[in-house]
Amino acid sequence: MAVRTRHMRPGFFIIGANKCGTSSLYRYLLANPHVLPCAKKEPNFFGQHPADYVANHIDDYFSLFPTCEYRGPLTFMWEASDEAGTSKPTTIVVERRPDTHYITGEASANTFHDVAPSMLHRYLPDTRLIVLLRNPVDRAYSHHRMYQRFRAAGHDLGMEIGDFATDIRAEIAAHERGRRTEYLGPGIYVELLPRWIATYGTHRVKVLFTEDLGRPRTAQEIMLELEEYLGLPAHDYADVLTRRFNHAKPASIDPATRSALADFYRPHNARLQEYLGREIDWN
Questions:
Q1: Residue 2 has what pLDDT?
Q2: Omega into 17 within 30° of 0, i.e. cis?
Q3: Residue 218 DSSP SS3
Q4: Average pLDDT of span 85-108
Q5: Which end of the chain, C or N, has fewer beta carbons within 10 A?
């Protein structure tokens, strides 16, 4: 009888939000020699499959993580680019020692807004969640630019992609009619975050801010917080914190559209600030 291979369970899961720097944060954590990678950059297993598929294929998902038994260095394919959409998958080798304790985890950024917290909790009740939040105006713009890149690369997105100002006007009108929105909805964090905290508890949901991750001093503080949160030994992240992964070239939003988005998000941001009990500087 064949012996079933045992795989590590993810000790952490960066659930989103998308276009908030989750790829960079994941790579920063992988710089710690006590963190082993998932075999896929962004599995999105729970976000792209219905519940019955997840139930029948959960072992396929677990097999993406390192084996519990030591089997030498890990080799996996990952996009190593600093700029969004410019590199092919690269072979990366991660050393693993037989006498060292490790954790593993993954980052599927759509999870925050596409997956029911109860679904993830059913299969990963003990994992520690990490949520990155970014100024929702900038997040929406980055989301739209990503879809423009996908369209330019020939991907069929099943929706029309116009210019940002036109698409946002249409989405604001759609939201007022109670319809689902592609770019606006994921940035209404206060409607999503409480569900995750209610399911996992405050001790298993770490909320961070993208803007803090982008400043050297506060980025170092975030990594120290995460080491404590995840039970990791201290590590110097100075070199890797200067890099941005899956990061597109800078571009600007026209003032009128930025103003309209800021007006749209202002009441939602105020509710989020009250919910978290801390000031959020997204002006």
A1: 46
A2: yes
A3: helix
A4: 83
A5: N
Distance CA 205, CA 189 (A): 14
CA distance 37 to 153: 28
d(CA 90, CA 87): 8
Helix (H) or strand (E) holding 23: helix 22-30
- Calculate helix-pair angle for 255-276, 164-176, nearest 10 degrees: 50
Residue whose C-alpha is closest to residue 66's, from 106, 39, 101: 39
The tens digit of pLDDT for each residue in 244-264 reads 776 666 678 999 999 999 999
Half-sphere exposure of 210 (CA within 13 A, CB side): 23
- Tokens standing for residue 109: 């950024």
Structure tokens at 171: 């989405």
Q: Which residues of 65-78 are buried (b: 16+ CB within 10 A; e: fewer)?
A: bbeeeeeeebebeb
Mean pLDDT in residue range 193-206 = 98
CB–CB of 35/104 below 8 Å? yes
CA distance 237 to 111: 26
Nearest residue to 198 via CA among 106, 111, 275: 275
List Cβ neighbours of 213 (8 Å cut-off, separation of 6 or more).
21, 24, 25, 132, 219, 222
- As a whole number of angstroms, the distance between CA 20 and CA 134 comes to 5
Chain centre distance of CA 43: 11
Residue type, 39: A
Chain centroid offset of residue 113 CA: 11
Phi and psi for 98 in degrees, rounded to 5? -70, -20
Tokens of 240: 């890797």
The ranges assigned to domains in the chain are: 12-276
